Amino acid sequence: MGVIVYCISFFGFKNWITLLIQVPLGMSIYIGGAFLFKFESLSYCIAVTKSIFKKEKKSKKTNSEEAATLDNKENNKSEDNIND
Predict the structure, then answer these.
(1) What percent of the chain has pLDDT over 70?
(2) CA gap 51, 15 in Å, rounded
(3) Of residues 82 and 34, which shows the higher confidence score?
(4) Which of 1, 4, 36, 39 has the lowest CB atom count within 10 Å?
(5) Where are the domains of the chain?
(6) What does the DSSP assignment read for 38-54?
(7) Ramachandran quadrant class, 83 (left: phi over 0; alpha: psi -120 to 50; beta: rest)
(8) pTM score over 0.90
(9) H-type helices in 2-39, by residue range?
(10) pLDDT one-digit tens code per residue, 34-54
């Protein structure tokens, strides 16, 4: 990975452009190798990331359900006030 990423510096780009190319390239080579060789740490990171996103989706659903319940209560109160 290091050799491939280092070779990008020979293209003669400015330093910040070289860095912008090298970082994603190095990440993609590492992740590709991790999938190819089935690194346990990669599968662990994927599992943790999935669990975090599942928790966020559940909390968003809970918040929207609570908001809908509050809206229904407010609507019922306003209807009761109109009927009085």
Answers:
(1) 67
(2) 38
(3) 34
(4) 36
(5) 1-38, 40-84
(6) T-HHHHHHHHHHHHHHH
(7) alpha
(8) no
(9) 2-7, 15-37
(10) 989 988 888 898 899 899 888
